[in-house]
Amino acid sequence: MSKAYIFLALTAVGISMGCATQQQFLNSKQDTAIQTVLGRAQFEMNCQEVTPVVISREVVQPALQGPYVGGIQRAEYTIGVTGCGKRSTFVVICPEGGEGCYSTGSGAFHNWSQ
């Protein structure tokens, strides 16, 4: 019976280590994501005085995973920006292992009304 408890304890430690690693990954990319969105927001909103707010952040797993196919894990941030009487929301993607991030822009990804 003690083997079951040891197994459960090791599983819990492994899960918590995985969560800490994802949190560290998100924390390490957040400043770059904010800088990326600031530049884009200043240009698109035609406003130099913008204030960013991180609305959400998560680690996105690769769409394809397997023994012969591998993708890149990404940090994804939704950042709201206000300034000059305007508001906009941007999604920023930061791939693991890369030095930069890219903004996917404001608004919806698809125009479902057409």
Residue share in helix = 25-40%
Class per helix and strand makeup: alpha+beta
Secondary-structure element pattern, one letter each:
HEEEE
Average pLDDT taken over every residue: 80
Strand content: 25-35%
**Radius of gyration, Cα only, in angstroms?**
19 Å
Count structural domains. Answer: 1
Q: How large is the count of helical segments?
A: 1
For the largest beta-sheet, the strand count, sense and barrel status come to: 4 strands, antiparallel
Task: State the separation between the terminal residues, measured CA to CA.
Answer: 61 Å
Largest sheet, order of strands side by side? 1-2-3-4
Mass-distribution shape: elongated
Extract low-pLDDT stretches. 7-18
- The count of β-strands is 4
Describe the structure.
This protein is an alpha+beta fold. It is 39% helix and 31% strand. The chain has one domain (2-106). It has a four-stranded antiparallel sheet with strand order 1-2-3-4. Strand 2 (74-83) and strand 3 (86-95) form a beta hairpin. The chain is elongated, with a radius of gyration of 19 Å.
